[in-house]
Amino acid sequence: MPDLVWVALGASLLMMLLWEIQRRHRDASLVDAGWAFAIGVAAIALAALGDGDPLRRLIAATLGAIWSLRLTGYLLRDRVLGKPEDGRYAMLRQSWGAHAQRNFFIFFQVQAGFVVAFACPFFAIAADPRPFGSVLDIAGVALWALALALVATADRQLARWRAAAVNRGRTCRGGLWRFSRHPNYFGEWLLWCSYALVAWGAPQWWLAPATAAFLLILLLGVTGIPYTEKRALASRGDDYRAYQRATSPFIPWFPKAETP
After folding, report:
1. 3-state DSSP assignment of residue 227
2. Distances 254 to 112, 183, 204, 259 between C-alpha atoms, Å
3. End-to-end alpha-carbon separation of the chain, Å?
4. Could you tell me if 113 and 185 lie in one domain?
5. With CB atoms 3.0 to 4.6 Å apart as the test, which of 16, 77, 154, 164 could cross-link to 183 if both were Cys?
6. Sorting pLDDT into bands at 50, 70 and 90, what band is 186?
7. Could you list the residue range(s) of the whole structural domain that residue 171 is in?
8. For the range 218-227, what are the long-range contacts, defined as Cβ-Cβ under 8 Å and sequence gap of 24 or more?
């Protein structure tokens, strides 16, 4: 898989550059936007280097680029531009102390590894020689569009809620957040499932569902829901506990009546 080797080298170099920026400004928040941007670049590069059906490669590049541009822009606005260092990284910086720069370098390179992992679906699609246009192809693109709309709507609703000073210290329960505590995570996972439909039947088709499964593990058990809810409980306490009892954690569903 020489194409993925080039992706790995490029992602590693980008993360080295972002680490140096972090070292100078003592702010690691840029790593998330850099990760999203790198995946979009990887999707375009793999589509250009692949030898599969030209239309299929164009679809892969387009889907990856649109996803990357939206998420990169959102992360820059939400966590980087004019903002203090993200609380996660400020906490790590404090706990790591004198070893912070060494540990951040390792952390940034791990993110480069994640870029390679999430570039795998685009590699599989770009290497598929079958003409684009099967039922699964169309279903995959339709699911991708639905999932992206779900994520963008959830992010927009949450941003609108946070912008109102009267909501400080309270949990958003409107819109999609009424039916899931993490509708943005659910939509993101659906989006990566859509690549599995488009890649189904390709020589390396298994890479796409494996990536979706990996993302699900991260969201449910590692860096997604557990950490997000830990921070929510620390900042919103009983209000968030009531929300937890009433609202589905991941898959949208009708909420229960909240209890004290």
Report:
1. helix
2. 38, 13, 38, 15
3. 55
4. no
5. 154
6. very high
7. 133-260
8. 219/182, 219/185, 219/188, 219/189, 219/250, 220/250, 224/182, 224/185, 225/181, 225/182, 225/185, 225/249, 225/250, 227/88
State both tokens at 9: 């080298």
Which residues, other chains included, contact 92 with Cβ-Cβ below 8 Å and sequence gap of 6+? Answer: 28, 100, 103, 104, 107
Residue 133 CA neighbour count, 13 Å, CB half = 4
Q: How far is CA 39 from CA 46, 215, 235, in A?
A: 10, 14, 32
Residue 120 and residue 26 share a domain = yes
As a whole number, the mean pLDDT across the chain is 93
Do 117 and 1 lie in one domain? The reply is yes
| CA-to-CA separations, 111 to 14, 37, 45, 115, 214, in angstroms, rounded | 10, 12, 18, 6, 14
Per mean pLDDT, which range of 43-52, 84-93, 106-115 is the poorest? 84-93
Q: How far is CA 27 from CA 89, 93, 197, 243, in A?
A: 8, 9, 38, 32
Structure tokens at 126: 């770009």
What is the DSSP-derived secondary structure letter of residue 257? P
Among 112, 130, 148, residue at a domain's last position: 130
pLDDT at 88: 81
